[in-house]
């Protein structure tokens, strides 16, 4: 079963507000941001109004054109040498109609940043991602269940609980749960700008 859902409403609203705030602070028109990002004015308008369900790649392009990255648009970062988030305060980013979900747990303030995600895929569910910019990669650690990694140019790779992997994400890729139990995994995404 392919999931037919997307970003959470609070995430879409937060990204839209942050894109508008950063665009206006930079003195950019929507057309200038469209030219710099390669994203249409119409899509940018929908993003700023919180009406779009953009891909991660689209959000990353807009973020790059604004001089930042996906994690900075998605999650409020606080300065400091040690920043701790209480349980339950992580940002819910994606969910599927089947009940799968992904949470952005933490993100670095370095550029490009690294983002720590906590994913749960229910049995039979999947997530298909668009290619990231060249040089991007993800690290995975399966906490429970069995995760199948899908990457263009590679056979499907099955990771049991406790297994870890590194995947170049500059190609089509995705995650799937072919098992009978939910799979929970953490991933660290390093998307170059």
TrEMBL record:
InterPro entries: Cro/C1-type_HTH, Cupin_2, Lambda_DNA-bd_dom_sf, RmlC-like_jellyroll, RmlC_Cupin_sf, TransReg_Diox_bact_type. One of its GO terms (cellular component) is cytosol. The keyword Transcription applies. Keywords: DNA-binding, Transcription, Transcription regulation. It comes from the Bacteria. The keyword Manganese does not apply. Residues 19-73 form the HTH cro/C1-type domain. It holds the Pfam family HTH_3. One of its GO terms (molecular function) is DNA binding. This is XRE family transcriptional regulator. It comes from Micromonospora craterilacus.
């Amino acid at each position: 079963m392919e999931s037919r859902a997307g970003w959470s409403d609070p995430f879409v609203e937060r990204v839209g507000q942050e894109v508008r705030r950063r665009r206006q602070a930079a003195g950019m028109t929507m057309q200038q941001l469209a030219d710099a990002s390669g994203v249409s004015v119409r899509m940018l308008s929908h993003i700023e109004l919180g009406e779009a369900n953009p891909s991660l790649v689209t959000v990353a392009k807009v973020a790059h054109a604004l001089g930042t990255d996906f994690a900075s648009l998605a999650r409020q970062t606080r300065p400091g040498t040690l920043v701790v988030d209480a349980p339950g305060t992580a940002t819910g980013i994606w969910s599927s109609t089947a009940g799968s979900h992904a949470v952005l747990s933490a993100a670095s303030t370095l550029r490009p940043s690294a983002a720590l995600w906590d994913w749960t895929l229910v049995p039979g569910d999947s997530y298909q991602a668009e290619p990231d910019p060249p040089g991007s990669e993800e690290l995975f650690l399966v906490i429970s269940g069995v995760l199948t990694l899908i990457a263009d140019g590679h056979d499907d790779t099955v990771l049991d609980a406790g297994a870890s992997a590194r995947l170049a994400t500059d190609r089509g890729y995705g995650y799937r749960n072919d098992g009978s139990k939910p799979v929970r995994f953490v991933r660290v995404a390093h998307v170059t700008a």
